Structures
1.
Amino acid sequence: MPKISYTTLGCKLNFSETASIVREFTEQGYKTVKFGEKADITIINSCTVTAQAERKSVNATKKAAKISPEGKIIIIGCAAQTNPERFLNTEQVELVLGTHDKFRAYELLNSNHDIIYSCDIQDVNNFDIAYSTTERTRSFLKIQDGCDYPCTYCTIPKARGKSRNSSIKSILTEAEKIASLGIKEIILTGVNIGDFGKSTNETFYDLIKELDKLDGINRYRISSIEPNLLTTNIIKFVAKSEKFMPHFHIPLQSGSDDVLKLMKRRYNTKIFADKIIETNKHIPNAFFGIDVIVGFPGETEEHFEQTFNLLSILPISYLHIFPYSDRKGTPATAIKNKVPSEWIKVREQKLAELSNKKHELFYKKFAGKLHKVLFESKDENNFFSGFTDNYLKVAVESNIDIKNQIINVQLTNFKNGIFEGIIL
Ligand code: SF4
């Protein structure tokens, strides 16, 4: 039986696509082995969102070649689309597949083929549905791809093309397949999922209403949504839904209106703040994970203080902090007054401390409370861990296997970023 290994860099969307592409190989008789073990085929799903991510994709290629010198390597993903030549120094590289062709990996491998397949991203219109099953308790379901926004620091539109999606009907079919595997939680995934419906004349609000009616899936999480696309009807729907979790991941990027203008973002700090406050009013126990970029060109100490102060006063729960790095071909590279890397580090550290404080404050609000937990994994000491609806991590001791079960738990001690609990 031929062996296939794989590794994914980057986002949840890449994760769902790797899973679907590898699934075609296993359906054709391949056995999956861990990345790092010898394999006949290795798939590397690359990322280009930062210079470091692209470097890691190239290093993973070299590592795969060392592990399986006789094997063949297939590079897919965003760096394969934006910079395919970068992978050709490794002789084991058999295919480099850009956005249009990555789902043809098995077909092309088994036919006469060139090495690079990377057409002009403007010509990419196809939408390949994808979902992951490897975690057995939750699945990343791709509902949308690409982006039409002009953010000046971002390479994603160049890697994934224009915003597009498949129909609500076809997504319901995929969700039913996931439910039939006994998986209880789906994370709706894409590039700009609030923009869902562009190519089918539907809306994200329509989609979540239909998914809510589907039997077999207990929980949905919205992986990330732009503040200007988190509408009042979506907020009110999540507030009353049993299945859509009170968990929001929202990009802010900067708390300075001047910097947001330089980034060409589609909201200002007032719109953002009002959206957080409105959501918090309708869903008081909601978890807010916020994306912030530090050190964007032109960001002064005063701009950074505005970001820090805004985040300090808002009821947010956690920060995802990204140090700015120039990305070839993006308008931001031409913006003057680059921020020295040592200043970026200082600002990053300050926000990380704020994030820890906010995270602990958020957790402590729920001590002693009763929450439903979906248990996902077990450690060697019979401790099972999982997450509440509002994304609190919980671990309980159990002698019976409670993996993939949703159980009422009384949250007790909060220690090292995790709640202990008592099963009721
Ligand atoms: S919304 Fe902006 S940052 Fe996000 S993928 Fe689109 S262009 Fe990139």
Note: Residues 341-364 form the longest helix (24 residues).
2.
Amino acid sequence: MQEDQQYLVPDYYPAFRCKQGSCRTPCCEGWPISFSMQDYFRLLSIPCSDELRRLLDGAMHLCDHPTPDHYAQISPRFDGQCPMHQPDGLCRMHAELGEEMLSAVCRLYPRGIRTGSDREASCANSCEAVPEMLLSHSAPLSFRLFPVRHCLPDAPPRIHHFHTAGREQEIRLWLISHLQNRAYSLPRRMLLLGEALQAVDRALADRDEAQLDALLSNRETLHVPDAVDAGHAQLTAGLAAAEEMLSIMDARSRSIHDYGKAALAYFGEGEAAFARYEQAAAGFAALIPEWETWLEHLLVNHMFFVQFPFQDRPVSLMDEYLALCAVYAMLRFLLLGWTAEHPSREAAVDVCAAAFRLIDHTEFDRFAAPTLRRMGCDDWAHLRQLLCL
Ligand code: SF4
């Protein structure tokens, strides 16, 4: 077990607690659990009860393409549950063998521990306890140092590097501050974030440290884009784009399938879609009057969790931004489409957690930008249509 180390965390992080048996969609459901080679051989021989041995031997198998870190898996049962998941919500392996024997993902989820040059920790929005916490959080998320102890080796070094003049974390928090600027509506803040990202991208590309400093200290005033016009033409076009995007995403994910199908069926297409959308938007605003604050938190938490826009992959900063716009549009579409016929805050949390199972735990971000590009939705005019949803 490593010593405590100071990590930058969002202010909700110290209070996070797993809901255990009261969780509606436990993370022990629907996902194969993978183990390292070391953990696999430890589990093969560890002394335990006959019952647990039977469960382990029955559920554990080698991965199709085993690697030292992902060597074997525990597959879900016929009902999608992990065979170790007990009716009380607790884990049989944890209860009998202790935390050390759990796979890395079971020990940490939904926590994301970043051990690069900036040590950071946060929780994934895919765990329903997180959007629930954020739903009752009013002030903009703040970030502070907090002692974190985890029992995992540091992550392997990054493969892809961005020139950030040594100010990566500062740039990321500065970008987040634009999404938290409540002087503007959330869709307009999303556009402002795009402006800020383009400005920082230019300064970094030009190696212009004076300009970068002027931006990060807010001495340089950014152009604030006009408010999005959610008029008939814009909204109808935005809806059609969201429906097309969702049909493409739906083919890649089980987690949003039912929600996506219901939302697409609810809105339908053409003229009626616009009227139904307006109705659903009014219903959602009545159900969650603080929806802009809640979505601000979800997007900010997602940006911090994935270290937006400097993720460890060869994707341009503006493509990471396109992916974030896709996250916004998909969230709004699913939330309004699902809560229109399931008008409860729990239902809103459930569809949100399901959406982030796709967003945070698949290559969503990598195919979102190319998908929007193929749809011809990667310019400001089309982004404004998507963001007026
Ligand atoms: S999804 Fe979150 S609250 Fe539910 S069981 Fe997993 S960690 Fe706990």
Note: Residues 18-19, 23, 26-27, 109-110, 127-129 surround iron/sulfur cluster (CB under 6 Å).
3.
Amino acid sequence: MSRLSHSEIHMVHRIGWLRAAVLGANDGIVSTASLVVGVAAAGTGRTEVLIAGLAGLVAGAMSMAAGEYVSVSSQTDAEQADLAREKKELAETPAAELEELTQIYQSRGLTRALAEQVAAQLTEHDALGSHARDELGISETVTAHPIQAALVSALTFAVGAVVPLIVALLAPPTQIVIFVAVATLLSLAVLGGLGATAGGAGVWRGALRVTFWGALAMAATAIVGSLFGVTVG
Ligand SMILES: [Zn+2]
């Protein structure tokens, strides 16, 4: 396993957050823009479009927060259960646990003698922490916090959703669909490229991928909206 330098570890951590933020903003842009385009395509006025868009922003941000909170909480619950089981095993069978840790270090390339020494010293220093980190892969630095994660995803969703709303507010009343569509595709291309760069993938491919799905989503709602407009109008 390649050893990461101090700055690379922080870089990996920051990339994780950046990617989550880009994905959250993408969701916000695509779902709110599609809603705005659909309602505008039905021939409604700017006020109705903005009310629908705002309701979509709030509903989307809340559901993102709820989803993130539930998923991170259940991950945290699973980690806590693993740690409690490990603590029990350390109390009941300390010799077997020490042997287990020794074998983990051996499998990572240490000689038996050195592995025994390292395992003994780390167990003496912090037995649960060593098993959590080296056996279960749980470490404080990567553990997400449910409330923090929920707030970040709601916020990034809302930031993304504001883009089509501002455009719908400023566009000529009869041109809302086209203005929102163009502005949305441009911002998706920028975000897609950013997300791809953060993940070390090709910028253009990342930009095209996100823009394609955004265009598809808006086309679908525009068709539904215009069909609705025709039948109701
Ligand atoms: Zn263990």
Note: Residues 48 and 101 are 63 Å apart (CA to CA).
4.
Amino acid sequence: MAAVHDDHAHGHGHEHEHHGPPSGIMRWLTTTNHKDIGTMYLWFSFAMFLSGGVMALTIRAELFQPGLQLVAPEFFNQLTTMHGLVMVFGAIMPAFVGFANWQIPMMIGAPDMAFARMNNWSFWLLPPAAMLLMASFFVPGGAGAGGWTFYPPLSVQMGMGMDMMIFAVHILGASSIMGSINIITTILNMRAPGMSLMKMPMFVWTWLITAYLLVLVMPVLAGTVTMLLTDRHFGTNFFNAAGGGDPIMFQHVFWFFGHPEVYIMILPAFGIISEILPTFSRKPLFGYSSMVYATASIAILSCTVWAHHMFTVGMPVTAQLFFMYATMLIAVPTGVKIFNWTATMWQGSMTFETPMLFAIGFLFLFTIGGFSGVVCAVVPVDIQVQETYYVIAHFHYVLVSGALFALFAGAYYWLPKWTGHMYDESLGKWHFWMSMVFFNVTFFVQHFLGLAGMPRRVPDYALQFADFNMISSIGAFGFGFSQLIFLAVVLKCIRGGKKAEARVWEGGTSLEWTLPSPAPYHTWETPPVIK
Ligand code: HEM
Ligand SMILES: [Cu+2]
């Protein structure tokens, strides 16, 4: 893709803006620059990932052997609940928004996001929401402990920690909705001349569709937890059976948000993988337009399957059959993507730098997660494995080796563009292989724990589950420590290292690779012309 640009031929007032960023804390508090805001989202999500990780390791330490050793059962429930919330809303989602902020303007040839001040605000809503969430551990009764899914009646009976979590979810939701409106407006209105929709990089396409999904379902979550709040404090009975309400209705509205939510955490990952595989295979992405249509159909279908989380609530068989087949249908466009990625690599001249290793790791392990998802969709099987460790294994394969591995792949891929330095390739490879091995040690055995009947969300278990739990806990600690290598790689890369070229990767063809490394504070102030 050829681009012609000169980003210095302009003259408007505020000089300091054009000599690079101001300094000090005020820079970060007031910045409206998409790169600054991207950086803040990424550090915030990494901090949340580490805190969610410590919670997971505490859970696994308790489950290392049968019996209660480390934490009280009530606190164990708070940990599983908070781990889920922190990882979903604090780590994975903000990380993808961080990538969107850094990359989308550079990839479409726009000087910044459409609503720069709203962008600042979307980020600065996150730290107070996170503090509210964490502070709920320290109030009487502790954090809400009914699972990240907030199911009543338990969530109605919980202490004030539950109100703080509901308030935090409101704020996180508002931040997501504003971020999505910003992304949609930027992509639809600020593309460089000549960049038609079907010429956009796949990462941009996946974010456009994800943003629409976010605008659609985040208000549903806000409405759901608001009804919970009024049931808790204002005498309504939405979910109170004794008052004529229905706790099952909560599950319907929660999962109408919840299932699209899991695709909100994977579609941008698909976008990152679709940038990386062609670059290191030195071939264009196979089936570009079918990739776009597959992404759109996954997003649409993801709104029709929510009750596959509820096969055991006693719904009619016809409804079970509908949700079973609708869920299986999603495997078709997902299969198209996996086929296109494989075809992209087929007969390519591949090299295996760290971004490519994580991308291939994603491809293998996400597919395993996808298969166990189809298994869970089969009603009679789901009735066996629901609420067991099989489900825990399933969604960690799609969320950790899926979303998280894609985030690592993207970080290694674009770090040289962001910092101007090449990262330490051998440390990167260590991070990949240790994560790959320890991830599978942690979560593969959990499939068998679940098939053997071990329930989730329990701090103690029967003796026959001891061996696999021990293996899983050892794996979890190995995985946890491997992530510190990643932190070392990033800090080392920011501080220095071999100078990165503009076109860091020989096979990189999208617009950001035509910009210098590090990318200047202001880019594309004169939009490039796409030939
Ligand atoms: C970093 C490695 C991770 C480890 C070792 C880990 C481990 C665990 C464990 C042990 C549980 C509790 C299972 C139970 O006893 O019920 C759990 C639950 C969960 N995890 Fe993770 N996890 C990790 C990363 C993630 C990530 C990246 C996500 C992404 C979104 C995630 C999302 C969840 C959710 C949603 C739950 C269910 C919480 C609930 O029951 O309400 N985890 N995880
Ligand atoms: Cu689902």
Note: The two ends are 7 Å apart (CA to CA).
